Amino acid sequence: MNNNQNSKILYGIGGLILGILLVSLFVPMTRYGGMMSWGGNQDSYPRSADTSSLDQHFIEQMIPHHEGAIAMANLALQRAKRPEIKTLAGSILAAQAEEIQDMNSWYQNWFGNNVPQVSLGMMGGGMMSQSGMHMGGQEDIAGLENAIDFDKAFIEEMIPHHQLAIMMANMLKAGTSRPEMLQLAKNIISSQAKEIQQMQAWYVQWYK
């Protein structure tokens, strides 16, 4: 089996696990009127004042998720051999740091307090840790620090990390009633989809 086939299998398995993980992240917040009314269909989330809880939960999940990406990107600036990876890392740092700043500000304005501190890899009340997918947590950082081929390991870590962010953003896009959150969701989907496409192209070019 060649590297191209291996990469396709890797992405396929990663996507399946991400889908299961995402349900575990968001199902606890889908109780509406005492019933589970959102079964995973993006268009079925009830648009009402109650979607404020969606915004709150999304921010609480996405900030530590972004922090994981930033930690990996900082490591890439130190360890990456290819200038393309370093440039990508710089873009991730700039974009996601700005989004974190926006989300922190919105959270304070809308919900009256600071975003709860969540350790990397413990998003969803520990669900990510229980699922075995830390997605930018301490185990992932340690793996990157010790990777023999850092650039390859970085791509293999960052693609599923971005995929999860896009899936979360699609759910936010379908359910939020706040224009700020809708625009954030669109930005995450657009920018990270492009980065995934670029990383996949590099992976095929460099490791096929």
From TrEMBL:
<dbReference type="InterPro" id="IPR012347">
    <property type="entry name" value="Ferritin-like"/>
</dbReference>
<feature type="domain" description="DUF305">
    <location>
        <begin position="55"/>
        <end position="203"/>
    </location>
</feature>
<dbReference type="Pfam" id="PF03713">
    <property type="entry name" value="DUF305"/>
</dbReference>
<dbReference type="InterPro" id="IPR005183">
    <property type="entry name" value="DUF305_CopM-like"/>
</dbReference>
<protein>
    <recommendedName>
        <fullName>DUF305 domain-containing protein</fullName>
    </recommendedName>
</protein>
<keyword id="KW-0472">Membrane</keyword>
<keyword id="KW-0812">Transmembrane</keyword>
<keyword id="KW-1133">Transmembrane helix</keyword>
<feature type="transmembrane region" description="Helical">
    <location>
        <begin position="9"/>
        <end position="27"/>
    </location>
</feature>
